[in-house]
Amino acid sequence: MKATLEGVTGTKFYALLKAIPGTYKVPVQMQDDNSIQEGTVIYDESNKQINICLGCGYQDNNPSEALTTIDDSSNEVSVKTAKSKSKVKAKTVINFSGTKKDQATAGIGQ
User: Fold this and answer.
1) pLDDT reported for residue 34
2) Taken in order 101, 58, 69, 80, is the CA torsion positive or negative?
3) DSSP annotation of 84
4) Which of 7, 20, 95, 100 has the smallest count of CB within 10 Å of its CB?
């Protein structure tokens, strides 16, 4: 099953439902000229908590571990070789956690 997510990045992206309930793998994809890196989405229905991490990969044996092993990445990393020194763009990690709030609608009695 495929889910579409929006509001985390500037564009919509999709995620694939895995065997563990509430667990999704975000595959590498191009959406509206933006590169979306592999990531993990976990939604816990019991406490309405969602955790999204793009750029941190997906681990089949323990998907929640990808959310806890986020490294601090800068936009550029210096790489020094024997011949030259160059800058390589590091991957960007986007991490989001939130809680779903139920909203009740008020009716007007007449």
Assistant:
1) 80
2) negative
3) -
4) 7
**What distance in Å separates the CA atoms of residue 36 and residue 81, rounded to the nearest whole number?**
29
The model's confidence at residue 64, banded by pLDDT at 50, 70 and 90, is confident
Residue 41 is given by DSSP the state E
Give per-residue pLDDT as tens, 68-101: 765 544 444 444 555 555 555 556 788 888 887 7
Residue of 49, 3, 45, 50 whose CA lies nearest to 26:
3
Q: Give the C-alpha separation, 71 to 100, whole Å.
A: 27
User: Could you identify the residue written with the tokens 């929006």?
Assistant: 6
Please tell me the predicted confidence (pLDDT) of residue 72: 46
* CB-CB contact of 56 with 49 (8 Å): no
Of how many residues is the chain composed?
A: 110
Cβ of 24: how many Cβ atoms within 10 Å? Answer: 22
One-letter identity of residue 91 = K
R_g of the chain, CA atoms, integer Å: 18
